[in-house]
Amino acid sequence: MSNVFIFVGHSGSGKTTLxxxxxxxxxxxxLRVATIKHAHHKVVLDTPGKDSWRYKQAGAxxxxxxxxNELQLVADAVDRREPGQLAQRFMxxxxxxxxxxxxxxxxxKIEVLRRECSTVPRCKIEDGLIAxxxxxxxxxxxxxxxxLDDIAGIVQFMLKFSPDSNSISKVKQGGEExxxxxxxxxxxxx
Length: 190
Description:
Blueprint lengths: L2 E7 L5 H14 L4 E5 L13 H8 L3 E5 L4 E5 L7 H8 L5 E5 L7 E6 L15 E6 L10 E2 L4 H11 L3 H4 L1 E4 L2 E4 L11
Parallel strand pairs: 1-5, 1-6, 2-5, 6-7, 7-8
Antiparallel strand pairs: 3-4, 9-10
Helix pairs in contact: 1-4
């Protein structure tokens, strides 16, 4: 199963921008990274009247549209909607899965909290919160804190914290596998 990290935070806190930067860094290290985005509003995923839409309307539990360089899968999501379940069901080829939103889902959460948006975290430690990316020092001081621009530090933490850290900490470098993360002690009282 893929290693899933759930990024949570208030609207406008910078979750999407952070994930974009993490994707660049992680994929640059040779990791295969997938994303899952939770939408709170209705989104049309297929075009009414097109063949793939017609297949779903006729009873297909999944419909895939494949072009010369991309594919889109539309599947029923009545159950198995948690990021870990979705990753297991659809993203088995990924080394890591970065999920955005899903603040009420089970799993490892990293919260993005910027003072200009709010000083009150969305999640509690009991919700699976493992780290803060924040300029609010008083928010969960017992957890590791990272600056929003500390991409290398966040990646290093994720790779060390991952339940499958042995397999994902090795990346291809010049055709040989090497350990991508050097040992580091975390200051849990930052």
